[in-house]
Amino acid sequence: MESGAARVAERAHVAVIGPGDPSEEERAQAFKVGALLGRAGAVVVCGGLGGVMEEVCRGARSAVGAGGRAEAGGRAGAGGRTGAGGRGGEAAPDIGARSTGAPAEPVTIGILPGLDRRDANPFVDVAIPTGLGELRNGLVVRASDAVIAIGGAFGTLSEIALALKAGRRVVGLGTWELARDGVADTTVVAATDPADAVAIALDAARR
């Protein structure tokens, strides 16, 4: 019989990156991305702090019902758990895990720049303090199978570059557009909305 750790290791790990001071639209996108990843039973990896990082974790935790199962609907309240209602009406992709079976409870991982795990936002399940500052960006993408970039400034751009160098699929929602010698570079896949971003990322993660 597989251990719980082994089952988590087999799930799709999707990093969600973006600014610590997002716009309202970026916050809403991050929440919806997290909710869809959560319903699919994915492991959400992020930098563990506020802004996009907090919203994606909050969205993922909103997929957890009182019975501890990933389910549709809901907005996270205190403690990160929720019942019915709330944001996010998209159908949940059914490709969150590499193995077959019903989606498992989502897991949120925050890879922190500092040394105190208590710096993590309240919706992080596993906080990993590194003391590496922004160098922890490389750990965020290396711990993932695919990356979703939402908006972002130069920190997000650095994570995109590190992800592409590591061979990770990067999906963008209103994020940086790359070009080489004046010609558009489509290495970062532009998604039309959160549901599209999640579907592309999960498909890449299970390959």
What report would you give on this structure?
- With about 210 residues, this protein is of the alpha/beta class.
- It has a single domain, classed as Rossmann fold (3-Layer(aba) Sandwich).
- The protein has 6 helices and 9 strands; from the N terminus they run H-E-H-E-H-E-E-H-E-H-E-E-E-E-H.
- The strands form 2 sheets. A 7-stranded parallel sheet has the order 4-3-2-1-5-6-9, sandwiched between helices.
- About 15% of the residues have low confidence.
Short descriptors:
207 residues; alpha/beta; Rossmann fold; seven-stranded parallel sheet; two-stranded antiparallel ribbon; 30% helix; globular
Helix-strand blueprint:
Blueprint: H1 4-10, E1 13-17, H2 24-39, E2 43-46, H3 52-61, E3 107-112, E4 126-129, H4 137-142, E5 146-150, H5 154-165, E6 169-173, E7 178-180, E8 183-185, E9 189-190, H6 194-205
Parallel strand pairs: 1-2, 1-5, 2-3, 3-4, 5-6, 6-9
Antiparallel strand pairs: 7-8
Region (Disordered): 66-101
Pfam families: LDcluster4
InterPro entries: LDcluster4, LOG_family_nucleotidases
CATH architecture: 3-Layer(aba) Sandwich
**Structural class of the secondary elements?**
alpha/beta
**Helix percentage range:** 25-40%
Number of domains: 1
The largest β sheet comes out as:
7 strands, parallel
Number of strands: 9
Q: Kindly, what is the distance between the CA atoms of the first and last residues, rounded to a whole number of angstroms?
A: 24 Å
% residues in beta strands: 15-25%
Name the assembly state: single chain
Radius of gyration: 16 Å
How do the SSEs run, as a string of H and E? HEHEHEEHEHEEEEH
Flag low-confidence runs.
66-89, 95-100
CATH topology: Rossmann fold
Coarse morphology:
globular
What is the CATH class? Answer: Alpha Beta
Rounded average pLDDT: 84
Number of separate helices = 6
Strand order of the largest sheet: 4-3-2-1-5-6-9
Biased composition (Gly residues): 66-89
Region (Disordered): 66-101
Protein name: TIGR00725 family protein
InterPro entries: LDcluster4, LOG_family_nucleotidases
